[in-house]
Amino acid sequence: MTSLLPTGTGAGRRTAGTGLWLVTGLTLILLLTRNLLPGVLFPALLLAQTAFTFLHGARRYGPRAILVFYAVTLVVSNALENLSISTGFPFGHYHYTQGPQLLQVPLMIGPAYAVTGYLAWTVATLLVGEVRPGADRLTTVGTPVVASFAMVAWDLSMDPTLATVRKMWIWENGGGFFGVPLVNFLGWSLTTYAFLQLFALYLRRRGPRAEPGPASPAQPLVLYAGTAATFLLTYVTGERTTVTDAAGHTWRSADIYETSALTTIYGMLFIALLAALALARRRARRE
């Protein structure tokens, strides 16, 4: 499996590293400007995020591993989303208003899980440890558990705005968190943990035996923090109005944006800070 890791001259590796930073910069720009022309910039953003994930993941774990990551993420997320739309388990009762769809789930949802899931995974490897063949059980389970918390922190900041304000999906019975039910976040924990744990088990059994390849964990960390920054921008620029959820409760969008900013600062940005400190300590030990 070590043959999957990129090899070549030092100049070649530096060129590839520079290319990854360029993709990181482009993705960050699209993240921070996507609300200017959402119909145009959001598809471009998702494409840039997907390109980054494949390029970074292939350099870090090998092409086969990142394909496995995408496969398990797309299958698990789509299966459980469709199950919930039909039965209410595990997220609750809701439906999407966007298309095109795979069964009852928009095609963009699976890739969105994957790109942010990969960022959350990398953050968790900084906080807990890399999963590779022979990894102990604590790391093999702990890394996907922490990554799932990093993922749910994203949804905690995102869901009320995209569902209650923008109505990209509708919670049919509303919910106490600005129209979003508690069960949604529990469902997110289950779903994200499931595909991240499957990826961890794959890496433990068939992943690269060497150290992770020459792709900086700082790049996913920058994009995770950049994703958090988008919610702070929405707090500043979002339209102040009132919105009504499917259960008939009326909410002020200003309150939703402010709560999103608070959960972002003390959720996603706190996690990013812990990961940045872990990365800095790791680099200091190597010097």
Percent of residues in helices comes to 55-70%
Number of domains: 1
The main sheet orders its strands as: 1-4
- Span of the ends, CA to CA: 29 Å
Give the averaged pLDDT, no decimals: 92
How many helices does DSSP assign?
8
Spatial shape:
globular
Pfam families: Caroten_synth (PF04240)
Protein name: Carotenoid biosynthesis protein
Organism: Actinomadura luzonensis
Transmembrane segments: 36-55, 67-85, 105-128, 140-157, 177-203, 215-236, 256-280
Would you mind describing this structure in some detail?
With 287 residues, the chain is mostly helical. The chain has one domain. Helices cover 70% and strands 6% of the residues. The protein is built from 8 helices and 6 strands; from the N terminus they run H-H-H-E-E-E-H-H-E-H-H-E-E-H. It has a two-stranded antiparallel sheet with strand order 1-4. A hairpin with a 2-residue loop joins strand 2 (101-102) and strand 3 (105-106). The radius of gyration is 19 Å and the shape is globular. 40% of the residues are buried.
